[in-house]
Amino acid sequence: MNTRPDEALRSALNSANASARLQAALSAGTYPRGDYVDVLVERCAVEADFFVRDMLTWALTRHPADLTVPRLTGETTSAVPQARSQAFHSLSKVGDPRGWAAVTEAAIQDADESVARAAWRAGVILVPVGQEREVATMLSTQLGRGDRDVQLSLARALAELGDDAVPALRAARIHPSAVVRGHALAIERLIEDPDEYFDEAIFEAMRIVARPDESENSPDPTRAPDVAGTE
């Protein structure tokens, strides 16, 4: 009795050998089939190897968005954090506007940082034209969250929105948390000067937040002297 292609793929993706799983995902993307989509999405939720996960996402992008987007959107509410994170990552790579429906406030504020970061990235990629300020407002609720890497992820997402992010960032100037105010100010600096280092932008922003009387005597007291650098 011949094994069904989707069952053969599932078996290959369950191999103990990461190289074999990588090859199986590559094959699934090279020779896509509609019945592979569920198998690929299921494996994304449990795959331990980064490179295999990346290949699983690539394989999904090789399948019709009509099949992948609904399946991935449903996965963004899974009880498994990795399933949610990988679903948002895959939606951002598929790039289909229908994936925007998954970018909710709950996703943006997900307690799992890997999920939240993936949702932030998906949000700025999938946001419909004209709703950029809406997603910037949602993202601004996460200002000051996490460690340096988490804050950098949010900074990159908001900076990608450019001027549409500025109103939400300026609204954060009166936030009671100095960390939030500093993070917002640093992102404003990056929007004005994309070549500035994030760490230097944060350093200067926190200096201003701590001692605003030392900032430049200019109409905008939140702007610190420019610091050379490239991201």
In short:
This is HEAT repeat-containing protein. The protein has 2 domains: 1-126, Leucine-rich Repeat Variant, CATH 1.25.10; 133-231, no CATH class. The protein is built from 13 helices and no strands.
Low-pLDDT parts are 214-231
| Count of separate DSSP helical elements | 13
Percent in strands: under 5%
Major sheet size, sense and barrel closure: none
Number of strand segments? 0
Give the SSE order as H and E letters.
Answer: HHHHHHHHHHHHH
If you consult CATH, what is the topology of the largest domain? Answer: Leucine-rich Repeat Variant
Overview of this protein structure:
The longest helix is centred in the C-terminal third of the chain and has 15 residues, at about 180-190. The termini are far apart. Mean pLDDT is about 90; it is low at about 215-230. The protein folds into two domains: about 1-125, Leucine-rich Repeat Variant (Alpha Horseshoe); about 135-230, no CATH class. The protein has 13 helices and no strands. It has helices spanning about 5-15, 20-30, 35-45, 50-60, 65-75, 80-95, 105-110, 115-125, 130-140, 150-160, 165-170, 180-190, 200-210. α6 (about 80-95) runs parallel beside α8 and α12 crosses α13. The protein has about 230 residues and is mostly helical. Helix content is about 60%, strand content about 0%.
What's the arrangement of secondary structure elements?
Blueprint lengths: L4 H9 L4 H13 L6 H8 L5 H12 L3 H11 L5 H14 L10 H4 L4 H14 L5 H9 L7 H13 L5 H6 L6 H15 L5 H13 L21
Helix pairs in contact: 2-4, 3-4, 4-6, 5-6, 6-8, 8-10, 10-12, 12-13
